[in-house]
Predict the 3D structure of the following.
Amino acid sequence: MAAVTPEVLTSTHVEKMKKKKLPKRYWEETEKTDQSQRRPEEEQGKAGQNQNKSTVKEKSLKRKNGESLEKKDPFPGEAPIPQKQLQKFQRGKKCKVPAGARERLKEAIAISEAMSEHAQKQAARYDLLLPEDAGFLEGDEDEDTNTISQADIADAVDITSGSKYFNLHLSQFGPYRLDYSRTGRNLLVGGKKGHVACIDWQTKDLKCEMNVMETVNDVKWLHTEAMFAVAQKRWLYIYDSKGVELHCVKKFNDVLRMQFLPYHFLLATASATGFLQYLDVSIGKEVAAICTKMGRLDVMAQNPHNAVIHLGHPNGTVSLWSPNQKESLVKMLCHRGAVRSLAVDKTGTYMVTSGLDRKLKVYDIRAFKPLHSCFLPAGASCLSLSQRGLLSAATGEIVQVYQNVLGSNPVSKPYMAHRLRGQIWGLAYCPFEDVLGIGHGEGFTSMIVPGAGEPNFDALDTNPYRSHKQRQEWEVKALLEKVQPELIGLDPGQLSKVDQASFEQRHKEQIEALGFDPLAKDKFKPRTKKKGRSSAGAIEKRKRKVAHEDQRVFLSLSLLSLFAIISHCSYYRHDDASHRRCNIFKQSD
Amino acid sequence: TTADFAVKTHIWTDDWQVHHLIEGSDDERKHKKLLEAIGSMGGRKRKKQNERSEASVQVSEYFVNAEGTGDKVNLSDLLGTVEKTSGASNKTKKQLRNLQSSKETLELPLNKQQTEKVSAEFSVQLLVSCWKNIILQNQKAEQMVFPLNQESSGPKRVEQVVAGWKVQTPLEQEIFRLLHGSRQPVNDPVLTPVEEQSLKAMSLEEAKIRRAELQKARALQSYYEAKAKREKKIKSKKYHKVQNKAKRKDFLKQFDEMVKTNPEGALEELKKMELSRMEERMSLKHQNSGKWAKSKAIMAKYDDSARKAMQEQLQMNKDLTQKMVVPSDDEHESIEEGLETVPDFVNDPETVIDPVNPWMRGQLTHEEPEVSCVTAEEVQTAEEENEEEEIIGEFERKRKLRQVVEEDVVEVSDKEEEDEDEEEDVSEFNTLFRLMRSEKTREGSNQTRGGLNTAGEEDEEGLLSEGQIRVRSIEDLEVLDEVVEPRAIEEPSAPQTAAAEATSEPPHKKKREINLKEVLTKEAKAVRLPFLPTVVDEEERDEQISIIKEAFAGDDVISDFIKDKSRQEAAGRPAVVDLTLPGWGEWGGVGLKPPRWKRKRFRIKTAPPPPRQDQKLPDVIISEKRTASVASHQVSQLPFPFQNTAQFESSIRTPIGSTWNTQTVVKNMTKPKVVTKLGAIIEPMVKEDFIKSKTTALWLLEIGHKKFVFSVLGIVGLHVNSCAFCL
């Protein structure tokens, strides 16, 4: 009885709805999809009750429309997450439970999968909190964006942004190198002729300024804006933000270029003598010193993805280094002439190089394959990649900015260009700002490049607006989370993989690392006996009794190594004698 | 069945009675005499009483005499009337008849030890089984909070709070005296009557559960008893043989099915088989080495059957020790391994490879026909704007003009010519490179080095001349800029020629060689600048030239690199082990070489190492060294439930740090496995803790048990009385 009447009612009700045509609400679409999503579940669960239930639902809906007796959630269930966002936070592939797996395995996989999914969903949900978008520059019709001058841009934008285009006329102390701090707040400039200054470039507040009275090859901020390193004529110096000399590191001599690995607290330096050295700034120790045997090292970049150092060489090769290996991880021939400059993008996917052969090449450094190359008539002396993947190249006195270089589409015309006076010596994008800093012979120029900086910053990692207290806290946390230099390698995910080396290999490595064999058997040492039985002769006799055992071990070892060379497992199949030898070997192990 | 029960008791009482009668006959006689004496005294003769008077206490029940004393009571005597009564159903009648006809006596119960053993087994099973679930559940639980049943931290009812409260202060005491004086209830009872009732009901439920358990145990026990007895009884060897055979057949059938449906299970079975095979191989069973076999061996000469028996034994041994052919996983594994070893770059976009670059690319035919060049140009230019075409045409004219002009001038300063030169050089280099690659395996690198040197020199020349371009004016610079374009356009024709040559080459060369130009370089595309580079001062130009000269001084980049790479490759290759001992088997001495057979036999070539990562990347050297530093932090052994590394790696693929996750997720992921309340005593778990919550489950168990008992009854059919409680 009860089931029949509502059906009739609903049908009429629906018709009415159609006639009235209620104003469309923005949530209607989602609601429909929700319903459609839930349908199959219902059908699966209660095929019999389906009809009944749906009618009840409609009834309640109707009541809501008519009298609004009960409040109903217009968006029932969890808010849907767009697939694209989910994909952004996807980590690795899902693992399927193999057929016939043990119960424990099933559970372990299920739990981990559930956790991963939960983490992914939550991360995707929180992506909502990154609302900022990157800017861009758009010209009029038939107008190339690269013809728009900086002055025009500065005039057009708001005052704060406009003030980001400025020049520092410092013609006295020669071409300048520069570095922005990780938060993008502070700027460090170092003139070739000894002028070093650090500036809060947004407020134009000069923190310190000095002349070190020596040639300055490079300047670099350390982990905070409280300390910076200056590579001077002979040694490496570390100053604090007031310009007080903290350290003179004499172990690091003739440094030409420096890179700071923020998560490892490592300062990597490349010297004129061909040494690549790593200084752990948290403990002040030299972690590794590698003789590259490649001559003068004046081209250097770091891969922010895996903390591998890239070095460019005069013979046209680019080599990749980690502090854990005395030889280069990878060496690739990139240019015919010397490599002049190189840059690696934030994701560690692309490397851009320029050489004396006046070419600009883009490499996929995961596959070590060239993607495309282009010919710059003037050649690029300096390269820099922004957080959003804009490439700036210094060709002579002109700075060109290219868009969409990374990827498969070839380089076309520059996105922006700016002419300066004097030779360009340093190029760096300011993090989280649409600003490109240029150090040149006549001083320093800050150039506005719309769309260069990452609009959203991680306040727990690099917060441009952090206070003094926050910086202190961050420093402690960062030190606690410091990544050990042993973990640097081509694959940063190496740690999450199972080491599949054999026991023998690991044992060999252990011996190498320790300098002795921890599993080695002690040499036979005869006990001292009394009553004249420990005379030299007696001891010798006793030694001789067991001497053959050592000999056997030695023999078997040599034979075994031979067998191992012949084939890895063939010695299992040999005759009894070899079996015995194997046993002895195992015992001796 | 009740009838049967009655019969049993009667038989039993009968025996007892007889026994007692024999024993007590003496007393009875006396008693009779006494009675008679008393009777005679009274004069009037008393009638002899044979009936039992129920009222008397002293009267023994053994006075009751059946008609035929000493006879056994039959069922028919007791239930004879059932046949005649019309009320009784036919079914029961039939059953009774059947019972009568059966002559079976009751079986003896198992002896005490055995019963105890069986019952102990079951009691233990039952005891353990009820804990099993909760233990498993706790093991699986992501987090355990101890003490186990903590009071909820939420708000409590007033009564619960008040219950533990005592009057302390004098004021309170006075108030309470007043309250009690008026007989008012101080507080509401904690439990309403209804609740208390329900609590009682719970206890009943528990009783039921207990009863169900007991019943189950009893039923199972009886079932097992019966089964044990039945199987004990059978002595026939043939029966067992048949049984075994049937079992085997059944198993084979099942196995065949399993192979199709459940291959994992089948593998398990196979493993079991393998184990049995191993056992068989280890034991001396079926090897005709026992006492019986020896005796048979003596007989075998004369007795055919003995021989047969022995052969059978051997056959059995053979069957059992036959190796099973297990479908190996090797293929699958190898595929997986392959997948793992394939470097990441396989997935990367490499679509746009246009492998031409003037300095690396080999123009393999020295002089390209002009026509083809033009056509290529046309194809390209057709796509581009007309303006450009015009420019190119103009440029072409200019170039020709210049060529004409400079024909008499010996100096090679023209860009175009230089280009051609360069290309020739490169092609020469490439051919040399190929030669070197192919010959290197056969002979030393002496010759190739020479070749490379020459190539290098020529190359260098080309480069140097490139460095010597004089830019005279802006117009010239413009021209130079445009020079680049047509060259870039011309280049695509190269791969075709390269392919042509590749086909002409013998195939065995092809496999080792990697075409440099295909992988190494890409076509350079000229970029138009918004600003033309300013005219460079003469001084600076000189400086630049000197820099370039310095950079290229005495080195041929490519050949150096190739040498370096080949050196690394050679270092990675395992050396040939030479075990020849001169003088063994033939003459030895200075200048005598060991013979060929010896070299063949004692020079051991080792298996080549896995292919290098940079095998297909001619311009890359990837170090094959293992980084031991990371290895010390890595997991080296697969943790327990995981079967392969992929499973484990995927289980730890999500980072748990707060850098990558939201706060809640981090908390969730890193929550401790065990949480204990500070200062709380952690009592051992009691049965009631978890049983209360699972009454419904046990109810289900009870139902299941009932069903089970009925099935047991169906099988045994005799132990009705044991299940009377249940019924």
User: Anything to note?
Assistant: The first helix of chain B runs from residue 2 to 41. The two ends of chain B are 13 Å apart (CA to CA).
